[in-house]
């Protein structure tokens, strides 16, 4: 299996609290991008052994084994302290060199303006999947339960407000 080095904690990274203290016993949770669905990461480039989820940082604030390797999909990482207090969130992360495979896929950005009544928008292209699609209304990320994808169409469960800014990023 092809796996790719993670840009978050990838090799020999050290994590700290927001006040600069070593994040001993910190937790790095890994999910499919834009979700809370746990996603496996790997301890080496062979992709044969999974990390625990969450990955528990050692006393030096480092990943045990020193490396995180990712599947060829986008991830979301939540970094928390040992008491599960959130420090940082990193979403839509590809492994280094992955970006969807051997070819680099350039994200498409679609912009529209809400009419207050229109629920369906033609994107102009078909997203790879819902996991590679991010929808924002007036800059606020929309949860997957507020819209659906049907081919090249984005369908909201409720029409975005009049003059609202709609932005869709997808691969």
Characterise this structure:
The protein has 171 residues and is mainly β. It has two domains: 1-97, Tailspike Protein, Chain (Beta Complex); 108-170. The chain is built from no helices and 13 strands. The strands form four sheets. Strands 3-2-5-6 form a four-stranded antiparallel sheet, with no helix packed on it. A four-stranded antiparallel sheet has the order 7-13-9-10, with no helix packed on it. A three-stranded antiparallel sheet has the order 8-12-11, with no helix packed on it. The radius of gyration is 18 Å and the shape is elongated. It starts with a strand and ends with a strand.
Short description:
The protein is mainly β and 171 residues long. It has no helices and 13 strands. Strand 5 and strand 6 (86-93) form a beta hairpin.
């Amino acid at each position: 299996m092809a796996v790719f080095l993670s840009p978050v904690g990838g090799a020999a990274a050290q994590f700290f609290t927001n006040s600069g203290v070593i994040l001993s016993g910190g937790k790095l949770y890994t999910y499919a991008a834009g979700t809370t669905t746990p996603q496996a990461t790997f301890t080496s480039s062979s992709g044969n052994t999974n990390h625990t989820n969450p990955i528990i940082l050692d006393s030096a604030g480092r990943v045990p084994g020193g490396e995180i390797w990712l599947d060829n999909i986008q991830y979301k990482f939540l970094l928390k302290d040992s008491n599960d207090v959130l420090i940082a969130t990193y979403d839509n992360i590809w492994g280094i060199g992955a970006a969807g495979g051997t070819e680099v896929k350039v994200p498409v950005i679609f912009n529209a303006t809400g009419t207050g009544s229109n629920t369906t928008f033609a994107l102009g292209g078909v997203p790879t999947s819902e996991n590679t699609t991010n929808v924002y209304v007036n800059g606020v990320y929309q949860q997957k339960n507020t819209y659906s994808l049907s081919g090249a169409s984005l369908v909201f469960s409720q029409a975005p407000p009049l003059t609202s800014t709609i932005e869709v990023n997808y691969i």
